[in-house]
Amino acid sequence: MRIARLTGDRIAVRGEGGWWDVTDQLQLEGHGDPVRAVIERGTDLERLDVVGAPFVRDADAVLLAPVARPSKIVGAPVNYRDHQIEMQEQKSIADYGVFLKAPSSIIGPGQDICLPYSDQRTDQEGELGVVIGRRARHVSRTDALEHVFGYVPILDITVRSGEDRSTRKSFDTFSPVGPYITTRDEVPDPAGLTLRCWVDGELRQSVGTDELIFDVPTLISYASHVMTLEPGDIIATGTPAGVGSLTDGGSVVLEISGLGRLEVGVTGRDSIAYADRPGPAGERRGDVDATAPGPAPGRAHWAMHMAGLWYFGDLT
Ligand code: MN
Predict the structure, then answer these.
(1) Closest Cα partner for 134 from 233, 59, 66?
(2) Do 90 and 52 sit in the same domain of this protein?
(3) What separation in Å is there between the alpha carbon of 61 and the centre of ligand 1?
(4) Range of the domain at 25
C-alpha cells in the first residue's frame, strides 16, 4: 500500500490513476502530523473502505511530505564504500555511528531546497528512507524489520562547511521526503532496491541498496541501541558516490525502484555569506574570510585567537 499526505492534511491511499482520501474514516482531528498518528495507532489501512471515499485524480493531487514532524530523523554517515572513497574518508559508519537531523528540515515534493550560504558548497545526498512503525529499543538484526512501517525516498542535503554535522544537515528545507510511503509488505527486501538521483537533469548517483555497509536491519538495530525509535521516525540510510553541489534555480530528482520519484527545486534566494552568519554580539566572525570586506584582524586579535580566546571588538 502507498500512503500520501495531500494538501489540507488529507490522508490518502493509492488507487488507479489517483488517491483515495480516507481522512474521514480515521478521526485525526487536531493531530499535527496525521500520518504519524496513523502509524502510532497501528491503524490497519488495508481494512479501510475506499468505496465511497473521495477520489483525487493525479492531475489534481498535491502531495506534501508524508511525515511532517517525526520525533527525529536519524542519519547514517559514510554508509556506502564508493562514497567513502570519494570523500577520502578513512572511517565509516562503523566508526562514526549515527547522527541526527532536525525534524524541522523536512519539506515535501515540489518545494525548494534553500541554499543557506552563497559561498559554501551545498550537496545533494540521495538516500533510502526507512519509516519506523513500532517502537524499537535494543532490537536485534533479526527482529529489526518488524519495526518498519514502510520506505520513502529522502534527500539528506548537506553543507560542506566546517560546522558540526548536525548543523550542516539541519537547515530548514534540508530533508526533502516523499512523494509517498510504501508499506513494508510491498518491499520484501530493502537490500533489493535501485536508487538513482539527478541534479539539473544529469544523473549523479546510481546504486543498489545491497551496497550499504550497514544494511537496513543493522542500522535499525544499531540506532535502537542508542535511542528509542518512535513510530514515524525516519532513518536516512546513507548516500552512495556522486554527491555534488546544488545551484540557485536548479532541481533534484530522486527515484527508488518501487518507491516513487521525489522532485524538488533549489533556490539561493535567502543565501548569506558564510562570514555573515550570526556570531556573538552580532559582530562579524573574525576567523573565516580574510578577503571579506571590513577591518583586518589586528595583532592583538591574532594573539588572542592563538591563545584560544575570541575577541570581536575593535582593537585599534
Ligand atoms: Mn547522508
Answers:
(1) 233
(2) no
(3) 29
(4) 2-64
